């Protein structure tokens, strides 16, 4: 007969994370770039006190558990306080991506029924445009002191965050409730149809943040200072605002300054040991450092994901800069990290190139997430590293249903990701493409990701993108877009010859278009939909 274990059952609540940091790592610093420029610094103990102050302020605004509070904000300390003050009170922290189209922002704020929206002064023009269409929002709070809070024409309900919390006590008894209660909400940034809401529970976030501290994921400890470039307005900044205080790591928040020079200087001045961001950010950072011959003094590891990290960039980080690359995969629907790549002891004798080829894959699933790939009929494919099909996930922090949606997206209890992947015998997963981006040619598949990664390996290439173009004979053929590095010269014949030495002959694109820049969307991914709209004709 089964017996019930005789252990306590304490709910996994976010308030416990910041209170843990306040008590155990009370003097560990949080450093934050103010939207108006200067650096601000305080400790986890002070952060927790101000989160409690905010909780009292929210109460004073007449808000109650279950209410949603929006944010349109950078990575900064007030946004961090809101992460805890809002969710810890039993309210829902709805992070809005300011790079969404204003119509989509209006849609998500209304759909989420946000009562209050916290915003950074940068986004005052955006607030001015959307506020008249968001009738349920009764207060707009600028994350600044009174001096840096702009008045916005036509909106009387703008308050300064500092003025709002100043009269409130930092004594607040965090309520205890079911750990499955909603804590945060983030909408997908899909290019078709309305965004869909992923409503994260306290339990999902706490478990994901614990996984983030594991050595096989980000390995956060009191010896670390982490600078998340991944935005707090999308997928909870990969849960780093929760895992850093959980692990006792110093947290460095870059605010609006995300250019290569600002990031480099902050990493150096704050002795950052680990960072996390999308590949385009790292390309910009290295583009600043390379011509100046700069090196990192303390940075030793970087988490990367959101789109595929080209092997050439991994090589540069590891060989030239001695920075270990952790390449992970996740999506809005997976709370944060789902898989992460690390090198196992058996790779010790491998060449750098072999190691980098392994790290170009998206790694093994963290404990708490199961992965499989299935064919069109839904049958599970073998873990042989070559059978490719749709990636399916399930686990403690995987979405079961979209917010206010009647239909379940699940298939036999698994979430279909829309990504095409392979999994090998050791469990290492590799994303080959999005289902909608994969190029079908003569009955075979070409991975646009692999082609892009190969193209970025050419020294004159800054960025590359590949789309499929209709072809009368082959169904589809690849078209390559290249952004050259500043000052570099490169012509079509040279890049095609280069690719012919890297990929199968039938993968070599039919044509190349050189552009000054690629369209990049709200989450740092190249918008292939835009390229298709503009260039997606027919090859003859
Ligand atoms: P989003 O929900 O906007 O963050 O987008 C999630 C999607 O980004 C995934 O379904 C993948 O298509 C893509 N993605 C995330 N991480 C990676 C990665 N490391 N390599 C390739 N694609 C990725």
Give an account of the 3D structure:
Helix content is 28%, strand content 24%. It has 540 residues and is of the alpha/beta class. It has a nine-stranded mixed β-sheet, with helices on both faces. A seven-stranded mixed β-sheet has the order 7-6-5-3-4-8-9, sandwiched between helices. Bound molecules: adenosine monophosphate. Adenosine monophosphate (AMP) is lined by residues 188-189, 235, 305-308, 327, 329, 331-332, 362, 417, 419, 431, 434, 523.
Distance between the termini: 71 Å
Give the uncertain stretches in residue-range form: none
Number of helices: 15
- Estimate the strand proportion: 15-25%
Query: Strand order of the main beta sheet, please?
Result: 2-1-11-10-12-13-14-15-16
> CATH superfamily assignment of the domain at 14-30 and 43-221?
ANL, N-terminal domain
**Any idea what the CATH architecture of the domain at 14-30 and 43-221 is?**
3-Layer(aba) Sandwich
Q: Can you tell me the overall shape? A: globular
Instruction: Give the class from helix and strand content and strand pairing.
Output: alpha/beta
Bound molecules: adenosine monophosphate
Task: Supply Rg.
Answer: 23 Å
Helix content: 25-40%
CATH topology of the domain at 14-30 and 43-221: Rossmann fold
Total strands: 25
Query: How confident overall, as mean pLDDT?
Result: 95
Largest sheet: 9 strands, mixed
């Amino acid at each position: 007969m089964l017996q019930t274990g005789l252990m306590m059952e304490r709910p996994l609540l976010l308030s416990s994370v910041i209170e843990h940091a306040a008590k155990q790592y009370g003097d560990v610093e949080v450093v934050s770039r103010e939207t108006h420029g200067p650096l601000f610094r305080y400790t986890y103990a002070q952060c927790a006190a101000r989160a409690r102050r905010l909780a009292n302020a929210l109460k004073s605004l007449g808000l109650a558990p279950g209410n949603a509070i929006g944010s349109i904000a950078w990575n900064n300390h007030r946004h961090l306080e809101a992460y805890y003050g809002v969710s810890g009170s039993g309210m829902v922290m709805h992070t809005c991506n300011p790079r969404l189209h204003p119509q989509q922002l209006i849609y998500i704020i209304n759909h989420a029924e946000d009562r209050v929206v916290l915003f950074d002064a940068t986004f005052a023009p955006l607030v001015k445009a959307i506020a008249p269409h968001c009738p349920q929002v009764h207060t707009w709070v600028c994350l600044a002191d009174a001096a840096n809070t702009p008045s916005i024409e036509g909106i009387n309900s703008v308050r300064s965050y500092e003025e709002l919390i100043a009269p409130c006590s930092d004594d607040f008894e965090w309520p205890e409730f079911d750990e499955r209660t909603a804590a945060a909400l983030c909408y997908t940034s899909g290019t078709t149809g309305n965004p869909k809401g992923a409503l994260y529970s306290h339990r999902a976030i706490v478990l994901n943040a614990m996984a983030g501290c594991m050595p096989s994921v980000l390995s956060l400890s009191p010896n670390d200072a982490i600078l998340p470039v991944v935005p707090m307005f999308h997928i909870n900044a990969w849960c780093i605002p929760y895992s850093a205080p959980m692990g006792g790591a110093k947290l460095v928040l870059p605010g609006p300054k995300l250019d290569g020079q600002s990031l480099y200087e902050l990493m150096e001045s704050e002795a950052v040991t680990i960072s996390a961001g999308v590949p385009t950010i790292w390309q910009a950072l290295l583009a600043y450092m390379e011509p100046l011959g700069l090196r990192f003094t303390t940075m030793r590891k970087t988490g990367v994901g959101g789109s595929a990290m080209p092997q050439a960039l991994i090589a540069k980080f590891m060989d030239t800069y001695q920075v270990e690359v952790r390449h992970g995969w996740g999506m809005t629907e997976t709370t944060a990290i789902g898989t992460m790549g690390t090198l196992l002891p058996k790779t010790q004798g491998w060449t750098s190139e072999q190691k980098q080829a392994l790290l170009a894959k998206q790694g093994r699933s963290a404990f708490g997430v199961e992965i499989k790939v299935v064919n069109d009929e839904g049958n599970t494919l073998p873990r042989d590293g070559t059978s490719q099909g749709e990636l399916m996930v399930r686990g403690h922090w995987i979405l079961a249903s979209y917010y206010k949606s009647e239909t379940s997206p699940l298939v036999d209890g698994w979430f279909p990701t829309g990504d095409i992947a392979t999994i090998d015998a050791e469990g290492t997963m590799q994303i080959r493409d999005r289902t909608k981006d994969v190029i079908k040619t003569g009955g075979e598949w070409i991975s646009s990701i692999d082609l892009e990664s190969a193209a970025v390996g050419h020294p004159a290439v800054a960025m590359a993108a590949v789309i499929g173009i209709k072809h009368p004979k082959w169904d589809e053929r690849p078209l390559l877009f290249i952004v050259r590095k500043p000052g570099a010269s490169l012509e079509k014949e040279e890049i095609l010859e280069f690719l012919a030495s890297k990929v199968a002959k039938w993968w070599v694109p039919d044509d190349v278009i050189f552009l000054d820049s690629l369209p990049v969307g709200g989450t740092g991914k190249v918008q292939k939909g835009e390229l298709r709209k503009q260039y997606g004709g027919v090859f003859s």
